[in-house]
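User: Reviewer 2 asked us to show a designed sequence for the structure in our supplementary figure. I'm pasting the C-alpha cells here. Could you produce the per-position amino acids so we can include them in the response letter?
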C-alpha cells in the first residue's frame, strides 16, 4: 500500500479537486484507491462534504471521514466550540494504515499547520506517523511563491518528503504572474511541479472528469506508485 497526503498552501486552493483527480488517475491505472478525510469542518450532519464531492467526480466508494464539525474553523477549534471529541493522532494514523487499497490518499484541512486535534497535531505529524510524503496544492498567481516556499520549507525542516507541487486551478486566461510561476515555483521551492488542474475542473461530470484527470499531471506515477 502506498500512502500520499494532500495539503494546501492555504484553504480554497483546490485540495479536494486535486485529491479527486489523483484518485481518478489511480483508478485509470487499474489500481484500487481509498480516500481519507480526517476532519471535515463547516458541514452539518447529513450534508455533502469533501468526500461526497470526490465520490461525485470519480465514483470512488472507499471513503473514510473520521470527524465532522459544523463550524468552518480549524478542526481543533471547531471541536472545542461544538463540545465534540477532538481527534487523536494515533487514531488517525491507525485508520489510514487500516484502509485496504493499493493507494491511500489523505486530504488535510486548510493549510499544512492547521491543528487537527488533541495536542495540536497537524498533517506533518500524520505524515510522520504513517511514513508518507506530502503533496502540496498551490495557487497559480501572485503570492503563491511565498506560500509554497513556506510550506515546502516547513516539510523539509520536519523531515517529511515533499512529493511535489500541483496548481489547484489553472486560469483559462493566465496573466503574466501565473505564466512566470510555472518556472518560478520549482525554482523557488526546489520541488517539482507535477501538474495543474484547469479552472472549473470540479464542474465536470464524472465521465468527463475521470477521462481527463490523468493528463493533468506530469510524473505523478512515481509519487503514487512508489
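Assistant: Here is a per-position design you can include in the supplement:
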Amino acid at each position: 500500500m502506498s500512502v500520499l497526503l494532500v495539503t494546501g498552501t492555504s484553504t480554497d486552493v483546490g485540495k479536494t479537486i486535486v485529491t479527486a483527480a489523483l484518485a481518478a488517475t489511480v483508478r485509470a491505472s487499474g489500481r484500487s484507491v481509498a480516500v481519507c478525510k480526517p476532519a471535515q469542518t463547516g458541514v452539518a450532519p447529513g450534508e455533502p462534504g469533501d468526500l461526497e464531492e470526490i465520490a461525485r467526480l470519480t465514483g470512488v466508494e472507499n471513503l473514510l471521514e473520521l470527524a465532522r464539525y459544523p463550524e468552518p474553523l480549524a478542526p481543533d477549534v471547531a471541536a472545542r466550540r461544538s463540545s465534540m471529541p477532538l481527534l487523536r493522532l494515533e487514531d488517525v494514523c491507525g485508520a489510514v494504515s487500516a484502509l485496504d487499497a493499493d493507494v491511500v490518499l489523505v486530504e488535510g484541512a486548510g493549510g499544512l499547520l492547521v491543528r487537527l486535534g488533541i495536542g495540536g497535531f497537524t498533517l506533518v505529524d500524520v505524515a510522520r506517523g504513517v511514513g508518507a510524503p506530502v503533496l502540496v496544492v498551490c495557487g497559480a498567481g501572485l503570492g503563491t511563491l511565498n506560500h509554497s516556499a513556506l510550506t515546502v520549507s516547513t516539510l523539509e525542516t520536519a523531515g517529511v518528503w515533499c512529493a511535489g507541487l500541483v496548481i489547484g486551478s489553472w486560469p483559462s486566461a493566465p496573466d503574466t504572474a501565473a505564466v512566470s510561476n510555472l518556472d518560478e515555483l520549482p525554482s523557488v521551492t526546489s520541488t517539482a511541479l507535477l501538474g495543474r488542474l484547469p479552472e472549473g475542473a470540479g464542474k465536470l461530470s464524472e465521465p468527463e472528469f475521470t477521462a481527463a484527470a490523468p493528463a493533468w499531471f506530469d510524473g505523478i506515477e512515481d509519487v503514487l506508485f512508489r
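For the response letter, you might also mention the following. The two ends are 9 Å apart (CA to CA). Strands lie at 2-8, 33-41, 63-69, 103-111, 134-138, 162-170, 193-198.
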